[in-house]
Write a structure and sequence with these properties.
Layout: H1 7-28, H2 41-54, H3 72-83, H4 106-118, E1 123-126, E2 140-144, E3 147-158, E4 165-172, E5 181-188, E6 194-196, E7 200-201, E8 207-219, E9 223-224, H5 230-235, H6 238-265, H7 278-306, H8 312-337, H9 347-358, H10 365-379
Parallel strand pairs: 1-4, 2-4
Antiparallel strand pairs: 2-3, 3-8, 4-5, 5-9, 6-8, 7-8
Helix pairs in contact: 1-2, 1-3, 3-6, 6-7, 6-8, 6-9, 7-8, 8-9, 8-10
Bound molecules: flavin-adenine dinucleotide.
Amino acid sequence: MPEHVPPELAELRERVARFAEEELRPLEAGAADDEEAPENRDIRKAVAERSRRAGFFGMTQPRAFGGTEAGPLALTVAREAFAATNLRTARYAFGPGPGVLRQAEGRLRAEYLEPLMRGERYAAWGFTEPSGPEAGRPTWAVRDGDDLVINGRKAYVSGGSAADFYAVLLNVDEDASGPGGTAMVVVDRDAPGVSLGPDFRSLDGGTHCQLILHDARVPQTNIVGKVGEGMQRGLGNIGQMRLGVAARASGIAMWTADFTQKQITQPHRAGGSLSDREQVRWIFGNMLMEVYAARSVLYRTARLAEDGVDVMNEGAIAKVLTTETAGRVVDAAVQLTGGQALIEGHPLASLYREVRSLRLAEGASDLLRLNVARGLLEFQAGRV
Ligand SMILES: Cc1cc2nc3c(=O)[nH]c(=O)nc-3n(C[C@H](O)[C@H](O)[C@H](O)COP(=O)(O)OP(=O)(O)OC[C@H]3O[C@@H](n4cnc5c(N)ncnc54)[C@H](O)[C@@H]3O)c2cc1C
């Protein structure tokens, strides 16, 4: 095993695989590709219930909210193992994490964070601003008495139309009553001046919408922390979030290598099997090398995080390398599988779409490369 994990984590991996076979696979037939699809709602509840009983659901949730708060290494093992099952229902195995509301206190904690953790209210995240003709002044707010009045648009809010509230990154204008700066603000869906654009689907099957804020009014007590802390809060947990994406990408690459092995060793109409051909072996060997390297990076980063290191840079490196690896591995698997792989409903067809989006969601590969250079050049972070 390239990752060489202690026995209890090897056992965790086996438990995930067993749980997926026994509890998730029977639910799989009715599940749609789109995570937010209405027909998935009952499946989501059933998976959450089973996962709670099996002890996986709370791994992503702090103890203060009744979770079991697994460390980064255990979470990496579990996330990778769930992804390596390639079951759609596995996406619902973990409970919602606190995200940017992590340190919310008082009313924000009682009315938003706690119901979010219990699964009673749904949140979505509004960070990305529009580009092209819709680009304008990035979302901003002015103080008005006890309120903030917000204007702007967020371009790509996943699960936005199913959410009860949004965590929005914006700029507050400086005025006589206080300083300006970035702020993370909780905006209720039914607050005055809030509307949603039509739903749109991304290649990977996800549903998103625009969040439109036109003189939207929210109390200043909806600011998470203080004005000036917005960007820092947005990026607060980003290293570990990207580690989560990396674990998913790594699991996808593992499943794909395994699938390819079965594919190329079965009888082929040309006689023998494809694995008898040297060129096919070369492609498969290259695939295995790439998966091995990606997993090595993933687990090195997870160990650093487990030791308490802020993996802002290493998380970015792991995310870029694993997602790009998954992209190449799935692409090669499609090629070796042939036309069958491109038929709607084939597992590789869905994965092909998903791995493409992983190189943009949670940070575009190109920008993360720039961030990695900046981390070392300007902050002496992320030594090799
Ligand atoms: C499936 C999916 C789910 C998403 N969910 C959410 C969500 O819930 N909430 C949310 O807020 N956002 C979400 N996003 C948006 C995502 O965060 C952005 O797509 C991503 O950050 C890239 O930003 P962008 O699309 O505006 O592209 P841009 O920032 O315009 O970048 C496009 C490309 O331009 C180039 N580029 C841009 N800037 C630079 C630079 N400074 N130097 C060099 N090259 C550069 C790079 O090649 C980059 O890939 C989601 C995206 C996807 C695909």
